[in-house]
Amino acid sequence: MSLASKRKVISRRLLQAIPVIVLATFIVFGLLKLVPGDVAFTLAGDNASDERITEIRQIYGLDRPFLVQYGSWLWKAVHGDLSTSLVSHEPVLTSIARCLPHTLLIVALAMTLALVIGIPLGIAAASKPGSWLDSFVMAIASLGVAVPNFWLGMLMVAFFSLSLNWLPATGAVPLSENPWEALSHAILPACALASGGIAEVARQLGDTARGARLDAEAESLRKNFEDKFWCEELGMYALALDGDKKPCRVRSSNAGQVLVSEIASRERAHRVALNLLTPEMFSGWGIRTLSMDAPRYNPISYHDGSVWPHDNAIIALGLGRYGFRREASLLFRGMFDAACHLDLMRLPELFCGFARRRLGAPTLYPVACMPQAWASAAPYAFLEACLGLRCDFDRREVHFSNPHLPAFVEELRIRNLAIADVTTDILIRNRDGEISVTDEGNDPDIAVRLSK
């Protein structure tokens, strides 16, 4: 995002904050009016006369309509006049300015404690992943995030101030007058405020080490999977491992689903893609659950040779993740042609795995659900796979990587595509295999990128 775009986003956020602040203050102002009791009576005292109560209402404008009172308060607040405190009888801004140094001291202490305590805890947990120490630190970190600061503060005051009498429960001393006294007054609220920061720092450091460990475990899993499941004579991954951990050497659509996890090496993923599109696996409408040369193959069986739209959509997503867009568009084309023969173009739960014939239609499975929730999502998965669509929410970018669409998709519009808090419309055209992408939203906060 460019500097100008960032400035525009910040400006827009600030402008959006104005109505939110006005609405929030209006609601709070209104709720205060609903509180039982009479403010003028409270200020005047129990034995005040009616004339005195009326005078106080006039002084503070309490006799005016609600909207007039709120408007007057808002006007003064915008101009820096927050009125006078009824407790200290001094301007509110003066009270804020007097307390600000104490507040900054508490914040500085809280940040220091969060780093000084949180970093060693996180390092200790990360140095022994999976140990009791790691579990203990992560449990404390989760507790620190979950426990409200104000509740923890009250517990600390009750224990350290009221029970042990170690630290003062109230008050503040300027740092310039007596640094030790100032710190003794600030330490309890600082500790309560730092609890969440300590927990977050420790958890972040622990998560970093845990992430590295999980990466190593994932790589070990990938290697073990390749060693155990790859069948060179099939050119695919085995359907399963039997009780003796030997591969079941059957070609199935399960091997295509492996691709969506990206656990397969690129070379073997390409071989899987080629085998999935052979006549034994690809019926012309879609990929069968089992190959025609499998001993259990039956084109009218529920699982042993039928074609499932959602199964093909998952395989298409896997093909897309390896950049095999043409192969994914071939599946998209076959499934679209099948839908053209169905009522309302609704894809069913599954249909039979008979080979496609000229001028023929897919053979319906007698008890297949139609419509089917799994199948209804398939077209969107096919589009994502063929377009190489990826959204970067942090950068507010929409990427189309080497897209390839079937010929029947000549023009496609994506409306109200939401990226974080902004939306855009995108027009995609397919002219003889040449894909063009146009950002019709013209919002500078969203970047639409096409790479080929």
Helix % is: 40-55%
Q: Helix- and strand-based class?
A: mainly alpha
CATH topology of the largest domain: Glycosyltransferase
What is the beta-strand fraction? Answer: 5-15%
Low confidence ranges: none
Assigned CATH architecture of the largest domain: Alpha/alpha barrel
Number of strand segments? 8
Q: What is the N-to-C succession of helices and strands? A: HHHHHHHHEEHHHHHHEEEEEE
Distance between the termini: 22 Å
Instruction: Using the CA coordinates, give the radius of gyration.
Output: 34 Å
Features:
10% strand, Glycosyltransferase, 3-stranded mixed β-sheet, single chain, 4 domains, 452 residues, mainly alpha, 14 helices
Give an overview in words.
With 452 residues, the protein is mainly alpha-helical. It has 4 domains: 19-78, no CATH class; 92-221, no CATH class; 232-387, Glycosyltransferase (Alpha/alpha barrel); 389-452, no CATH class. Helix content is 53%, strand content 10%. The chain contains 14 helices and 8 strands. The strands form 3 sheets. It has a 3-stranded mixed β-sheet with strand order 3-4-8. The longest helix has 51 residues, at 179-229. The relative contact order is 0.06.
Give a quick summary of the entry:
With 452 residues, the protein is mainly alpha-helical. It is built from 14 helices and eight strands.
